[in-house]
């Protein structure tokens, strides 16, 4: 099987929400199951994710607004074989994708032990766009640099 790998630099910001946007019901949505195979205090992590029926393995290095990311698509069989190794380091969430001013806002509504937590992430094509971003009025406090809102931290709680 030929494996496709995506190499990129992820530039994103994360926010809590004051309220959900009015157009949420019309947005594309996915159920996400995510688990971590390995995590290091230095900010390296290997995670697997199932987004509806699509599965992937992602390796990330770094923290904050910009970090290195490599992603490999997984077959359902590969995902099923790796999933048990993530026991105790998992999270589930409902993700909504909202196009906004040439960007994509991803709203994650967490389930399970983190039910009630709602965050928005915005990924940017470059650092300038990231720096100049003015969030919509329904965004709350920015939590990009706060470790307690990182998915890896939430999965390990």
Describe what you observe in this structure:
By secondary structure, this protein is mainly beta. It has a single domain (5-156), classed as Beta Barrel (Hypothetical Protein Pfu-838710-001), CATH 2.40.320. Helices cover 12% and strands 50% of the residues. The chain has three helices and nine strands. The protein has an eight-stranded antiparallel β-barrel with strand order 1-5-4-3-2-6-7-8. A hairpin with a 4-residue loop joins strand 4 and strand 5. The radius of gyration is 15 Å and the shape is globular. 15% of the residues are buried.
Q: What's the CATH H-level homologous superfamily?
A: Hypothetical Protein Pfu-838710-001
CATH architecture: Beta Barrel
Number of domains: 1
User: What series of H and E elements makes up the topology?
Assistant: EEEEEHEEEHEH
Number of strand segments? 9
Distance between the ends: 35 Å
CATH topology: Hypothetical Protein Pfu-838710-001
Structural class: mainly beta
Please state the average pLDDT score: 91
The global form is globular
Residue runs with pLDDT of under 50 for 5 or more positions: none
């Amino acid at each position: 099987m030929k494996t496709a790998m995506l190499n990129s630099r992820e530039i994103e910001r994360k926010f809590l929400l004051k309220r959900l946007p009015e157009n949420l019901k019309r947005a594309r949505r996915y159920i996400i199951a995510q688990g971590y195979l390995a995590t290091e205090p230095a900010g390296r992590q290997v995670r697997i994710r199932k987004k509806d029926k699509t599965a992937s393995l992602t390796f990330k290095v770094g923290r904050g607004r910009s970090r290195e990311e490599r992603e490999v698509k997984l077959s359902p069989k590969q995902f099923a074989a790796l999933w048990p190794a993530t026991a105790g380091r998992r999270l589930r969430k409902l993700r909504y994708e909202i196009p906004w001013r040439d960007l994509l806002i991803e709203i994650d509504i967490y389930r399970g032990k983190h039910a009630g937590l709602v965050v928005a992430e915005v990924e940017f094509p470059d650092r300038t766009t990231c720096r100049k971003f003015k969030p919509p009025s329904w965004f709350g406090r920015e939590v990009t640099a706060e470790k307690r809102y990182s998915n890896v931290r939430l999965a390990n709680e």
